Amino acid sequence: MMRKHSSHIEAGSSSCCSGTCYCSKKVKVTICVVIWTVIAVIVALILAVIIKAATLQELFERMELGARDDPVFMSATEQEILERSQRLVDAISYRTISFSGTNLSLEAMTDFGTFLERVFPNLHDSDFVTFTPINTYSRLYRIEGTEKTLNPYLLCAHMDVVPEGDFDLWTHDPFDAGIVTESDGQDYIFGRGAIDDKHAVLGIMEALEYKVVNKEQPKRTFYIGFGHDEEVSGYLGAAEISITLEKMLKDNGEELDFLLDEGMFVVADIIPGINVPLIYIGVAEKGWAVVDLDAEGDQVHSSTPPLESSIGILAHGVANMEDNKQPSMFGKGPEIDTLRYAAPHATFLLKMILGNLWLFSGLVSSALELSSQTDSIQRTTTAVTIFNAGVKENVVPSQAHAVVNHRIHPSDNLEDVLELDRENADRVKVTLRDSFPPSEVSSYSNDVIPFQIVVNSALEVFPDAKPVPGLMVANTDTFHYKNLTDKIYRFTPVYNLPEDIARFHGIDERISVDIYSKVVQFYYRLMVNADFDVKIAPTAQVEVKPEEVEEFLEILEESDYESPINNTDSNLLPLTKVMEESDENSANETDSHLMILQDIPEEPNENPSNETDSGLPPSQDILEEDFDAMPVNETYSDMLPLESAPKDLDLYDLTPEEETFSNRTID
Ligand SMILES: CCCCCCCC/C=C\CCCCCCCC(=O)N[C@@H](CC(N)=O)C(=O)O
């Protein structure tokens, strides 16, 4: 047998089996084919992975909003930066702490409101800013645009803060630290609220005050909503602001285009291998659930302890919950796009992994799990936040109680979460106290102008950072506004390293003077960039050049209309009048409705440099191209029917101002 084997080895030494087996030639060939096929597949896979990594494209394409290369910022001398920082320091000194839904610091909140009015006097006094107190303490502002816009937006922030927690752990007083120079040589504004969320309240106010002082009334109307109880879920503040705002929008014939609230931030060094900061925009938000855990046992003398006490039973349940986490949902929510958008900026090795998530999603999910921060984007989290039992050291208590706070991933559902809780804490009573569901995902494709406005504004202050959409892992007031718009973004441009993220609700909350200055500039640029997408109500006017006026008049003459307008010196004309007249006489006869100004800039981003000062396309284009050619019976997405024009508007009854073509706003 041994001999036979060795002779076989000699005879078959050139075969792929190296002559070590007794296979027939056919089997050997088959094995060879299989082995080579496997090798070829592996080589092809490796090649595909490398090619994919080498050809990764940037997913975010920046839309030109008009001032990309040379954005004009607020003036920011050293003195101005210092004064702005000092105002944030002062804001932090108000202890506007929300302890619970029924324990808010209302006196401090009243004082904080007075403080805002004192340090931003001009905006509170401005003709185009209207302030409405909501539920006494929350604040809603309407900033009237120069155009009668149909698509205002909302900027949100909140004025309350969480308690400081363990005061002794703070390096500086959480409400009275001022500006501190730290060992890295940077100046920081310290204190509770520095990044959550008084920087946003003050940043928005600074930008608006500046615009008011410099007579920069925006073209586009917008709203500002400051809640006073966000930290306890906003039921008294944002929820009420939302109700009033809905009514205001309705009364003004407006629809909220988008809203921006606090949320995610600029984050660096969060994923090893991605060496650029990420502008992480929260395009969706987790749901939320509070679960009560109750365990029971015998109440006995501590000298004869039971085999299992209520505390022991509860502790086991809680430990199981921490050990057996809620399942990963990686790939089923916005977290996958966070990584796909970040991938082109990774090292080549990481590009191979992130560029090929179809192959490596398991690996990536395991890697995310290594840090609680990155893990939070891929699963429902479980935090045990309260644990109570016992009254005396020699009494074994009969009751033990704990509270678990879940943040629910958008692809998870509450029933499944609770089922796993009950499996983990099987000898504990598990009761759902309160919850709300995860949000919808707001659109973040490259043609969504609100997303572009937010990202462009962030890029203007952080030009080296890369935008990524993602999941807001905590909660905001945006839940209360979900009926007003489907474009909800959660972001402020605070710069965080992983260790800084722990400062939210943690110890030594702070923001550097430098970053705070960027926060202010961000809101200012956002107010400017938002003017790019003004959708104008049908009663708006258009600027026309003198030669265009001639042309208008010719049309009017042909129509036998006796125009009271015979003066072409000036350059304004109510468009609605001309449009209607032309409509009646057009070859494309129609009985339907007026041509409406906002129909014309259907693709406003195509040539923004041609915009007139009013933010409208040149009226020449309207006349020569769109006007006659426009199929008037067609329904345009942004077109309002004639019926929605003010009923009492007499198109031919011109005021003296109109006759000289001066500006006129039709209410
Ligand atoms: C690949 C990138 C991974 C990035 C991981 C980022 C991990 C982020 C971790 C922490 C986020 C801190 C969020 C601050 C939230 C501020 C809002 C807040 O405190 N809200 C409260 C109150 C409420 N409305 O419910 C909350 O409890 O969520």
What does this structure look like?
This protein is of the alpha+beta class. Among the domains are: 78-270 and 442-531, Aminopeptidase (3-Layer(aba) Sandwich), CATH 3.40.630; 284-436, Alpha-Beta Plaits, CATH 3.30.70. Strands 3, 4, 5, 8, 9, 10, 17 and 18 form an 8-stranded mixed beta sheet that branches. One of its GO terms (molecular function) is metal ion binding.
Describe the global form: globular
Contiguous helical run count: 20
Helix % is 25-40%
- Beta percentage is 15-25%
Major sheet attributes = 8 strands, mixed
The structure class reads alpha+beta
* Overall number of strands: 21
CATH class of the domain at 78-270 and 442-531: Alpha Beta
Radius of gyration: 32 Å
Sequence stretches where pLDDT stays below 50 over 5 or more residues: 1-16, 562-667
CATH superfamily membership of the domain at 78-270 and 442-531: Zn peptidases
Mean pLDDT: 84
The end-to-end distance, rounded to whole angstroms, is 107 Å
Instruction: Kindly report the CATH topology of the domain at 78-270 and 442-531.
Output: Aminopeptidase
Bound molecules: ligand LX25XAGQ
CATH structural architecture of the domain at 78-270 and 442-531? 3-Layer(aba) Sandwich
